[in-house]
Write a structure and sequence with these properties.
- This protein has 173 residues and is mainly alpha-helical.
- The protein contains 7 helices and 3 strands; from the N terminus they run H-H-E-H-E-H-E-H-H-H.
- The chain has helices spanning 2-7, 27-35, 47-73, 98-110, 125-131, 142-145, 147-172; strands at 38-44, 84-90, 115-116.
- Strands 1-2-3 form a 3-stranded parallel beta sheet, with helices on both faces.
- The longest helix has 27 residues, at 47-73.
- The radius of gyration is 18 Å and the shape is globular.
Length: 173
């Protein structure tokens, strides 16, 4: 696979290589998932997003099955495994939002043991940063002094710490 070949020389230079692909199963996403060791899938607590997530994983499972079947027909074995696969909740709503709570329960039932429970809240902060071609971490001054910034950044930091911990466990294996 061309993507794996292109990334191979970088593996010695970096601890982790992050590929942020579109939420589709186009060639780049398929190649990224075939070469990945970890898969993180964001999901807002919205009905259509949950349906898209389920459809995405259904198609992905079929794709992996077809790789395995094709490999076996060719006399090989396709033994792809992942260090961890996780869904993380984004654009979460307050606990008082009943519909969002129902959708969160659906996500947990559909992906048991694979959901990072602490969601990243819906906020104007990432939209503002993105509009300026910056990240949330690039913001400074009065932007970072606001309560909204702190309410958004704290769960993002916690999620990053969680992923770092998961990576450390995977590397020890």
């Amino acid at each position: 696979d061309e993507l794996a070949e292109g990334l191979d020389p970088l593996r010695d230079q970096y601890d982790a290589i992050v590929l942020d692909t579109s939420p589709s199963l186009g060639y780049l996403t398929q190649a990224a998932m075939a070469g990945a060791d970890i898969v993180l899938t964001p999901c807002p607590t919205e009905g259509l997003d949950f349906a898209s997530l389920c459809q995405f994983w259904g198609v992905f499972v079929e794709m992996v099955y077809s790789f395995r079947t094709h490999s076996e027909k060719m006399g090989g074995s396709f033994n792809k495994t992942y260090d961890f696969v996780e869904v993380f909740l984004t654009k979460t709503k307050p606990e008082s939002d009943t519909l969002a709570a129902v959708i969160k329960s659906w996500i947990n039932k559909a992906f048991p043991g694979r959901v990072y429970e602490r969601g990243v809240p819906e906020s104007s902060i990432p939209k503002a940063a993105s509009a300026e071609m910056r990240t949330v971490y690039d913001l400074c001054g009065k932007e970072t002094a606001s309560g909204a910034y702190k309410r958004y950044k704290e769960p993002v930091d916690a999620w990053v710490d969680h992923i770092a911990s998961e990576l450390a466990q995977a590397w020890r294996r």
